[in-house]
Amino acid sequence: MAIIEKQRMLRELLVAVLRREDDIRVVAEGDTGAQAISIARQCHPHVLLLNYALPDINGIQVVRVLQTEAPAVKLIALSNRTQPSVVYGMLEAGAMGYVVKSAAADEVVQAIRTVSKGVRYLSPALGSQAYDTENFGPPINVLGRREREVLALLAEGRHSREIAKKLGISIATVEVHRRNIMHKLELHSVAELTKYAIRKGLTLL
């Protein structure tokens, strides 16, 4: 397995803990999203423990890249964040596990063993909410880059005039994007768009 964690002390502690386990072998470690992608390509670890908040690339983006370039690697998110937007985002992108940083070392080991068998693992600290990724709606890639930008701003409560000014486009263009987004996602209100955006990790509201 491999570990990608930006905090050196925590990373070294995790490596030390995991190396005590007879059935777990740490083959690589790093502290950036770019390193995570490189390690997955070159080392092909069975499991990759990935910090959500990396200094160069958002953890959700890293997971999406690895789902395309190294789909055999099973991914576990490691984060101190428990907001549904972050958890949903990582799981929907393709992570099979989510462990909070406050977890005991034994839980990390349990998560690795569980995910290595192809079974999803979620920290008990996340509560009883059901993170059902089957009901997320259409994938985010049905939207173009500009449509995702407009959606994120709509979900933050921005009005068309504000969005137009921020993106340097006309109000009419914003309205066209809004209609196209609703059509592509089969959603019919800003409330529904906001819920979708949160689940996809476009906003942390």
Low-pLDDT stretches are none
- Look at the structure and give the mean pLDDT: 87
Helical amount among residues, as a percent range? 40-55%
Secondary-structure element order, N to C: EHEHEHEHEHEHHHH
Question: Roughly how many Å is the radius of gyration?
Answer: 19 Å
> In the CATH scheme, what's the topology name of the largest domain?
Rossmann fold
Taking the sheet with the most strands, its summary is: 6 strands, parallel
Structural class of the helices, strands and pairings? alpha/beta
Level-2 CATH architecture of the largest domain: 3-Layer(aba) Sandwich
Query: Count of helical segments?
Result: 9
Tell how many strands the DSSP assignment holds: 6
What is the 3D form?
elongated
Going across the biggest sheet, name each strand in turn.
2-1-3-4-5-6
The overall number of domains is 2
The CATH H-level superfamily of the largest domain is: Response regulator
